[in-house]
Amino acid sequence: MRLIQNMTSIAESAPPPAPPRAIRMAVIGGSGVGKTALVVRFLTRRFIGDYERNAGNLYSREVQVDGEQVTIQVQDTPGVEMTDNAINLPDHVTCSIQWADAVVLVYSTTDRRSFDLIEQLHRQVARSGGANMPPVILLANKSDLLHLRRVDPQQGQLLASALGCSFYEVSASEDYSQVHQAFHRLCRQLAQQQQPPATPPPPPPATSSTEKRRSPLIPRPKSPNMQDLKRRFRQALSAKVRTVTSV
Ligand SMILES: Nc1nc2c(ncn2[C@@H]2O[C@H](COP(=O)(O)OP(=O)(O)OP(=O)(O)O)[C@@H](O)[C@H]2O)c(=O)[nH]1
């Protein structure tokens, strides 16, 4: 009975399990390129044909990444427009770029203007990330609409290579596996980046040649223990008494 009580109190005092790690992604691109369709497809497997114009919804879902339970937060953003060769970046998009750990840039294969936006959007991400540039992937959506194609796959691939990011041509409406593969790869990339290093960092270099680092093989000098101190104290005292009595 007591054993059971003890076990219960141990179980009660155990710390609660840590919440799953969160991965934050922002999906950015021109208007109507299929940002919402892609996010919903990735998170729910479903393609829903019609959405209201996007005001910037945040989606959240727990998924398995390399065996680890991870919370993915995906920020859908309003479409970016271009006027007179300059992009008009809504505040929501700027904030989402700053917030995100990773960015998904999207254009539509049927919309040349959405493709032309990508370079400038990437520049914004780079400017915002500074030295900590977040990982980016480039998605060319609506690949099923062959008769309406305005951007060749090679052009997308070339642009992605120039920007140093991965490239996927996908169709939110026709192919779940492509969409999943693209987003999932980004999740893995992020999860690996966020892992603490597997090996301990190397020791700092010695500041001068005369300064020697303590080798783990050289034993530390022992500090005297209490027994030892008491013994030495008694010895000193009896020696003193002997000298006093001998005077
Ligand atoms: N054929 C086809 N249509 C798609 C695909 N993806 C999205 N669509 C359609 O494209 C339209 C726009 O899709 P959305 O997901 O609303 O695009 P968005 O980029 O979120 O749009 P905004 O919020 O207005 O910027 C919708 O009618 C979708 O059904 C696709 O892969 N293939």
From TrEMBL:
Transmembrane segments: none annotated. It catalyses: GTP + H2O = GDP + phosphate + H(+). Coiled coil: none annotated. Residues 197-206 have a biased composition (Pro residues). Residues 191-230 are annotated as: Disordered. Its EC number is 3.6.5.2. InterPro entries: P-loop_NTPase, Ras-related_GTPase, Small_GTP-bd, Small_GTPase. GO terms for biological process: mesendoderm development. It comes from the Eukaryota. CDD domains: RERG_RasL11_like. One of its GO terms (molecular function) is GTP binding. PROSITE patterns: RAB, RAS. SMART domains: RAB, RAS, RHO. Keywords: GTP-binding, Hydrolase, Nucleotide-binding. PANTHER family: RAS-LIKE FAMILY MEMBER 11 (PTHR45704). Belongs to the small GTPase superfamily. Ras family. This is small monomeric GTPase. It comes from Gasterosteus aculeatus aculeatus. The lineage of its organism: Eukaryota, Metazoa, Chordata, Craniata, Vertebrata.
